[in-house]
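Hello,

Our lab assistant flagged a job as stuck in the queue for most of the afternoon. It eventually completed. Since we weren't sure the result was trustworthy after the delay, we are filing this so someone can double-check. Below is the sequence as submitted and the structure that was eventually returned. Let us know if re-running is recommended.
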Amino acid sequence: MTYRIAPSILSADFARLGEEVRSVLAAGADVIHFDVMDNHYVPNLTFGPMICEAVKPHALKDGKPAPIDVHLMVSPVDRIVPDFAKAGADIISFHPEASAHVDRTLGLIRESGCKAGLVLNPGTPLHYLDHVMDKLDLVLIMSVNPGFGGQKFIAEALNKLKAVRARIDAHKTKGGQDIWLEVDGGVKADNIRSIAQAGADTFVAGSAIFGQTDYKAVIDAMREEIARP
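-- returned structure --
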């Protein structure tokens, strides 16, 4: 399995955002994660498409564009999707509770030229995946309740990861496309191994990386934990 580290710029130094993106990719990160909050669906306000557009030229890894993974915690969601696609997003994910028509929103994201993802909160049931697996490129399991960085990992997320991994594997066995299984919230070097064992392949980490002075040391430690027998 390919494992990806996706630092969340929510915890970066916004006064040096371009530099932070370059630094964390040079330190070994694979994906840049955007936590977009609207002070409506979640009780916080972060940033919009202009920040995505500004960061895009800095998101280079080994001279090639690194994926920008936009997690929309907004409601309604359809209006803003084309704006983020135009601003340079590669992946756009959203919460099913924030869309009147989940299938339509997934289609809109793909029609806008991006990969599409569905985000499940700690209390969100898995049945939202039942009839849209063929339109998914990513499932994001929230291991905290969305809205703020720096929260503690909710252990029940491990069971949800295992259940979704089983669904993805069954879908692929039937000839379905590859689907990333991402986790976001409280991910650190000391719990990333158990999260990987539960089935996650993409790990969002904010304060665990940007809260340290040596980004490479943190990312290396995470990869070592994942690889540990």
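-- support follow-up --
The delay was a queue issue, not a problem with the job. The result is valid. The radius of gyration is 16 Å. The first helix runs from residue 17 to 26.
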